[in-house]
Design goal:
One of its GO terms (molecular function) is DNA binding. The chain has one domain: Tetracycline Repressor, domain 2, CATH 1.10.357. 65% of the residues lie in helices and 2% in strands. A two-stranded antiparallel sheet has the order 1-2. Strand 1 and strand 2 form a beta hairpin. Helix 2 packs parallel to helix 5. The radius of gyration is 18 Å and the shape is globular.
Length: 162
């Protein structure tokens, strides 16, 4: 493959990276459908996907580290995040999801928890991730479930049902 042809097609390295990110975002969307009414299950499925595809997480991490605060946000990533926060807001408005957190916060917490125990985490540096994967997945799902609980009038926490 000729480097000049690559840049002729994509323009520059930022546009090439955007195309790669858009492809990877599309893959995640296809393989891990977003379910705002069941964020714990989504977090568990995302955990599984990223554990099986660590290159996806590395690419996303590189994007956040190197391109954060720039105007080079991949279009597919921006659209995906916007669609997810809008879906969470609709689920909250419809009473299918607790409203204790803003949609953006709830999405950020869900994504962070799904990523917390993956191989790029400093917590797993000396760990047998495969041995711990099932327990950690369960912890991720439970933590996200707790974030989606609503407090009743007495301040007691109860599952928010539809």
């Amino acid at each position: 493959m000729n480097k000049a042809l690559i840049y002729t097609h994509f323009g520059n390295k930022e546009q090439l990276f955007d195309a790669v990110m858009d492809t990877h975002v599309a893959r995640v969307l296809d393989e891990v459908p977003f379910t705002p009414e069941d964020l714990p299950d989504y977090a568990g499925r995302l955990f599984d996907f990223l554990l099986a595809n660590p290159h996806q997480l590395r690419l996303a991490t590189w994007n956040r580290l190197e391109r954060s605060g720039t105007d080079h946000e991949p279009q597919g990533l921006s659209a995906s995040m916007r669609q997810k926060t809008d879906a969470i807001a609709r689920a909250q408005t419809g009473g299918r999801l607790a409203t204790a957190f803003a949609p953006e916060d709830l999405l950020a917490f869900t994504l962070a928890l799904a990523n917390a125990w993956l191989p790029t985490s400093p917590m797993t540096a000396n760990d047998d991730a495969a041995q711990q994967a099932e327990q950690r997945r369960a912890a991720v799902v439970d933590a996200v479930r707790r974030l989606t609980l609503a407090a009743d009038d007495d301040g007691e926490v109860a599952a928010h049902t539809s």
